[in-house]
Amino acid sequence: MKNNYCVIMAGGIGSRFWPASRNNRPKQFLDFFGTGHSLLQMTVDRFRPLVPIENVLIVTNVLYKDLILEQIPDLKPEQVLCEPARRNTAPCIAYAIAHIKGMVRQRTGLGEEVSWDDDRLNANIVVSPSDHLILHENQFRKTIRTSFAFVEKHDSLLTLGMKPSRPETGYGYIQLSNQTINMVDSDIYKVRAFTEKPNRELAEVFLKSGEFLWNSGIFIWNLRTIRHAFAEFLPEVVDKFMPGEKLMGTAEEEAYIQDKFPSCPNISIDYGILEKSKNVYVLPSDFGWSDLGTWGSLYELSEKDEQGNATLKCHATYYDSHNNMVTLPEGHLAVVKGLDDYIVAEADDVLLICPKGEEQQIREFVTDAEIDYKGRYN
Amino acid sequence: MKNNYCVIMAGGIGSRFWPASRNNRPKQFLDFFGTGHSLLQMTVDRFRPLVPIENVLIVTNVLYKDLILEQIPDLKPEQVLCEPARRNTAPCIAYAIAHIKGMVRQRTGLGEEVSWDDDRLNANIVVSPSDHLILHENQFRKTIRTSFAFVEKHDSLLTLGMKPSRPETGYGYIQLSNQTINMVDSDIYKVRAFTEKPNRELAEVFLKSGEFLWNSGIFIWNLRTIRHAFAEFLPEVVDKFMPGEKLMGTAEEEAYIQDKFPSCPNISIDYGILEKSKNVYVLPSDFGWSDLGTWGSLYELSEKDEQGNATLKCHATYYDSHNNMVTLPEGHLAVVKGLDDYIVAEADDVLLICPKGEEQQIREFVTDAEIDYKGRYN
């Protein structure tokens, strides 16, 4: 376990959960379910039995560093890596692996000239979003253990693919090939292709075929393997970090990153590496996953009363009302009469009332509020 | 002006404006329009140019005494009369006139044996609800001055009748006779009949006839005149107060009222006296009056945007939404999409969403909340 590392990406500023999410309090920091734990806290806790806490890194914007250290008090400040600019997931991961190399070197007393291929640099890394929901923690742990065992033995990139339960058009899909490797009691499939979010018709074909899995954005690989992939597919990113590798973990790391990171290309790990590599595998998984992308997806996951109303965090009394999603600050009461299929979401000083089917317009609401009220409610 | 007195009835516990109104904060104490003044404060201020502040009495429940003294800091505690039980308007007014007799006696040095008919007891009294809205203050003042001049000269009971602007079914009506008395530039009509709240059809007949006015619940009379009317029509109420008249304004007043008031019959001044007396006049008035009986009536009075949405106290942005009435705590923002003809009202920790046409059910909501949440939100 001491060779296991975890990189949690927590730099998102998603506006789809406005007004619950705000510029200074994005989705990953929210306690959606009123459990007293934010999505980020739940994510970190999920990895505790799998990765030593000192091997957990959180990559984020400097704006959120204090909030993260407050939410995860046993994290040291140097475990929060700050991106000076938003450059999507590939530069984020490149930075994290450079930093992990530095950590391993310092712990093992290896010099800065050590090769990425040196066995003593061995590190298994899981990369995870910070703002997803996972319901079945035991199954999740089992899956991650199998994944670590796989990348320990195989120089391959592994991704977790979720067994689809519906023709979801909001997710990317991964197509399986026939080529499999058996690990413990799981078959791990070589990936045939990654696909973009499909339309409804195509999503139904995907679901029916049994050949497609949802792309969860959770990746597992060995330090050496992902570094080779970067060198092969994104050499322009490697060029940015290579000269600074020896500075990782020193007082000069921050200044180096401040200087070089913003000039990285804006590119996702999926597009930059996974879709191009012939060495990507997927472990079909089923641990009650959701990316919690919208209020609607939160509604789908929430417990509902007999009229299909989901009430999160607050009390609510419904009269002639069906299939609503209501969330107010804790301890508040909603009395709702004659309303069907709405989101009613209040946080701090903003109340949103919007039909569930039209929530893609939330971004427009957020932009309008930004302009009309000079950011006061953003 | 020093003979002018004002009795403001502020004992109501109306639940029709829940959740804005609560048990400990009924409608009259609310600042509905975000002006920084409660309806009670506006009522008191309206009378300041007409009645010396030391001649203003507020009759209420002891629960609200402190709140009243807080809202009207230049009122002395002895100007707030506390009813030990709710007994409708007739006992409330009987108590107030007994107290006013005591005030006048003390100020003029008259003995307790002085007759109600003694000219030195002369006092003109306006009786007013505390929770109505009046838009045109100048017109109101003119009307009250005319009324005082009328009751100074005529031993009659005077009521203000509002010129109806729509076939309202929520108000009682007053039918005019042909008999008039001219005062300054107003004709004051003898009342032919008081009527209960009519159905829609009848309300339309009333409106069309031009013979009917809305009953505002604002009355003006001389101390002596109303006391005679009580003696004639409600002797059982007079019996309760007469033995204690000499105690009014002394340390024993409160104990006496505590003892006797609860045994008064529960009866309104309209039913107990005005409908029975042949000596009732009405001054047709038009000063932008509303009893603010429901959220709907507040909507009617409020400024609306081009889509018919009325926003009270808060900010609101509407998308595909029409004819809604939205009020949140000051400084909050509502974003409303795809909603027509609703009340959205939030106060403290309760949010109500209800079609405007179904707001008579608010009483049911209040009762349900009382039971379900043990009064926590009432």
Can you offer a commentary on this structure?
The structure is a homodimer of 378-residue chains. Chain A is of the alpha/beta class. Chain A is built from eleven helices and 17 strands. Chain A has helices at residues 39-47, 65-71, 89-108, 137-153, 200-209, 223-233, 235-241, 253-260, 269-274, 295-301, 362-372; strands spanning 4-9, 56-61, 80-83, 124-129, 133-134, 157-162, 173-183, 186-195, 212-222, 280-285, 289-290, 310-312, 315-319, 325-327, 333-337, 342-347, 350-355. In chain A, the strands form four sheets. Chain A has a five-stranded mixed beta barrel. In chain A, strands 12-14-16-17 form a four-stranded mixed beta sheet, with helices on one face. Chain A has a two-stranded antiparallel sheet with strand order 5-11. Chain A is globular. The mean pLDDT of chain A is 94. Chains A and B meet through strand 13, strand 15, strand 17 and helix 11 of A and strand 13, strand 15, strand 17 and helix 11 of B.
